[in-house]
Design a protein that fits this description.
Layout lengths: L11 E9 L6 E2 L9 E2 L2 E5 L14 H12 L3 E4 L2 E4 L8 E5 L2 E5 L2
Antiparallel strand pairs: 1-2, 1-4, 1-7, 3-4, 5-6, 7-8
Length: 107
């Protein structure tokens, strides 16, 4: 798979959706998309292959975490912008949709 990126300083593209578990289960889309962050039917996204973390805008962080832990059936809390939950081994794979392609991040 080849990703088309925007012509800017970053490895950036348009993120159009997320799924938890498999490409067919637990779809999640981003609410509160304003004109400043929307591009090509998704949200402006930077893919940093040099980082093992996933950083999300504060616009979508809490709803993303709610969906993720909801799929897992785990209680959690958010304190100072960080989600906290009991340790678990059943994290689902996360699938990101951009440019019409699904990219899998294994648990």
């Amino acid at each position: 798979m080849t990703l088309d990126t925007f012509d800017d300083f970053f490895w950036s593209t348009s993120l159009q959706g997320v799924r938890f578990g498999s490409k067919k289960d637990h779809a999640y889309t981003f609410g509160n998309i304003d004109s400043g962050s929307q591009v090509n039917n998704g949200i402006y996204t930077i893919w940093d292959t040099g980082s093992s973390d996933i950083f999300l805008s504060t616009l979508w962080y809490e709803s993303f975490v709610e969906q993720l832990y909801g799929v897992m059936g785990i209680e959690y809390e958010i304190q100072d912008g960080v989600s906290k939950a009991a340790c678990a081994t059943n994290y689902p794979d996360i699938w990101f949709l951009h440019n019409g392609y699904w990219q899998q991040v294994k648990a």
